[in-house]
Amino acid sequence: MKNRSLRTTMAWAMAGAALAGVAPTALAQAAADVASLYGPQPPADAAYLRVLNASAQPVKVVYTGGGPAQTLAPRAATRYAVLRPGEPLSATVDGRALSRTDSGSAKAAAGDYVTLAVLHDAHGWHASAITARGDRIDGLKATLRAYNFAANCGASIGIAGTGAGAGATVFGNLDEGNTAARAINPVTARLVGQCGSATSAAVTLPQLAAGDGYSLFVLGDAANPVLAGARDALAWPPGARQTNP
Predict the structure, then answer these.
(1) Which DSSP category does 201 fall into?
(2) Can you give the pLDDT of all 245 residues of the chain as single tens digits?
(3) H-type alpha helices, the chain
(4) Which member of 26, 52, 75, 202 lies 3.0 to 4.6 Å from 228 by CB, making a disulfide possible if both were Cys?
């Protein structure tokens, strides 16, 4: 019995030595298999930038990492471009750089997801940015994010009611220039944005799956809020279509 145990121990030792010899190759192959399954991933220190057309008219924009000029429909957003830390967070409209109305950083920082809203008013085109973190809240649910770009508005977002106003609150007390996020079950719903007693037209959420992200934007102003939405999608790998579906 003792000799049998000794032979077994020696066999396992020899097998372990052989395995150790091929481990780097096996690990490399495993990594290649994972890469082929999920595709190339953005750098770990990447930052992300998308442009939102907060105006009521189409606009042609060029932005950092976004490739050639593209035309955005009213209330539409691009996909997130993938940037390296330190790259400028900038956009141009009709070949002119936009002035920034926010007080945030004008450079990309690792892990930041920046939404740059472009708006046309009596003073021309300008931009305002809100930065969020892209941390997934719950992998078994969809993630809903809210951004308040509405001027002079403490916004809320709720389920569209059968009468005037909103029903159950989804996001409340969202100050101008701020963002919030929450996990939701992957269901469809009709939502409205509110600034005080003023209520936007309803927006219908698309069918979302677990792990998906979707953004809601409160636009306009305190008297006339507008609610818009877009999927949180990356333009990756480089050269992928930038326009958000």
Answers:
(1) P
(2) 444 444 444 444 444 434 344 444 554 554 444 444 456 788 889 999 999 999 999 999 999 999 999 999 999 999 999 999 999 888 888 778 876 655 455 888 999 999 999 998 888 888 899 999 876 667 789 999 999 999 999 999 999 975 555 678 999 999 999 999 999 987 788 999 999 999 999 999 999 998 899 999 999 999 999 999 999 999 887 665 566 76
(3) 2-38
(4) 75
Q: Compute CA distances 235 → 7, 85, 134, 181, whole Å.
A: 57, 17, 15, 22
CB atoms within 10 A of CB 38: 8
User: CB–CB of 218/193 below 8 Å?
Assistant: yes
> Tokens standing for 1?
């019995």
Q: Are 49 and 116 in contact (CB under 8 A)?
A: yes
Could you tell me the maximum CA-CA distance found in the chain, to the nearest angstrom? 93
* Distance from C-alpha of 12 to C-alpha of 142, rounded to nearest angstrom: 47
Tokens of 91: 């956009």
Residue listed under structure tokens 């396992």: 12
Question: In this structure, what token pair is assigned to residue 242?
Answer: 């930038």
Answer for the pair 185, 170: CB distance below 8 angstroms, yes or no.
no
Predicted model pTM: 0.79
The answer to whether the peptide bond before residue 237 is cis (omega within 30 degrees of 0) is: yes
| 233, two tokens | 């999608």
Which residue in 36, 34, 42 sits closest to 235, CA to CA? 42
